[in-house]
TrEMBL record:
<comment type="function">
    <text>Catalyzes the 1,3-allylic rearrangement of the homoallylic substrate isopentenyl (IPP) to its highly electrophilic allylic isomer, dimethylallyl diphosphate (DMAPP).</text>
</comment>
<keyword id="KW-0479">Metal-binding</keyword>
<keyword id="KW-0460">Magnesium</keyword>
<feature type="domain" description="Nudix hydrolase">
    <location>
        <begin position="39"/>
        <end position="173"/>
    </location>
</feature>
<dbReference type="InterPro" id="IPR056375">
    <property type="entry name" value="Idi_bact"/>
</dbReference>
<feature type="binding site">
    <location>
        <position position="34"/>
    </location>
    <ligand>
        <name>Mn(2+)</name>
    </ligand>
</feature>
<feature type="binding site">
    <location>
        <position position="78"/>
    </location>
    <ligand>
        <name>Mn(2+)</name>
    </ligand>
</feature>
<protein>
    <recommendedName>
        <fullName>Isopentenyl-diphosphate Delta-isomerase</fullName>
        <ecNumber>5.3.3.2</ecNumber>
    </recommendedName>
</protein>
<keyword id="KW-0963">Cytoplasm</keyword>
<dbReference type="GO" id="GO:0050992">
    <property type="term" value="P:dimethylallyl diphosphate biosynthetic process"/>
</dbReference>
<comment type="pathway">
    <text>Isoprenoid biosynthesis; dimethylallyl diphosphate biosynthesis; dimethylallyl diphosphate from isopentenyl diphosphate: step 1/1.</text>
</comment>
<feature type="binding site">
    <location>
        <position position="124"/>
    </location>
    <ligand>
        <name>Mn(2+)</name>
    </ligand>
</feature>
<feature type="binding site">
    <location>
        <position position="122"/>
    </location>
    <ligand>
        <name>Mn(2+)</name>
    </ligand>
</feature>
<dbReference type="Pfam" id="PF00293">
    <property type="entry name" value="NUDIX"/>
</dbReference>
<dbReference type="InterPro" id="IPR011876">
    <property type="entry name" value="IsopentenylPP_isomerase_typ1"/>
</dbReference>
<dbReference type="GO" id="GO:0005737">
    <property type="term" value="C:cytoplasm"/>
</dbReference>
<feature type="active site">
    <location>
        <position position="76"/>
    </location>
</feature>
Amino acid sequence: MSLPSETTDREALLVELVDEQGRATGACPVAEAHTAPGRLHRAFSVLLFDAAGRVLLQQRAAVKTRFPLQWANTCCGHPAPGESVVAAARTRLTEELGIQTPVHEVGTFRYRAGDTVTGRVEFEWDHVLIGRFDGEPPQPDPAEVADFAWVRPEALAAAIEADPQRYTPWLSGVLTLAERSN
């Protein structure tokens, strides 16, 4: 007898609300934080580099509630209130792509962006983490990732400038912080 697989309603999970300096102020469900006009909350974005200096991108799955099918950094998400950003990022790398590798934080930035397709809003205090990984992601989760690609950072920056609608609105900020420290 097989048991049904356990699924998590990611929209019901709690995120940590923050003030304009990134200090924790409370919590609310993911769905509430992303309902217009949006509530400023803690998030993370991971960008992995390979030995050749390329970055690993993912195309977000079509079922994503925010910015579906747009190209983004390697993975992203929200730490639970009080959870370590690094620990949360490592967990999401495994969940989304089947990758286990060390990551470290290189900075933060704040952004707000509305998704015209879904009507949701991103208003995030984003911690950018980078790490090293070589090879192909062993187990991309199709509910999270539609596709992936290794890209040279300079080619990515030019592509974002030429066709910004293909990319998530936070990707440029993530790339800028990652390149400064890599």
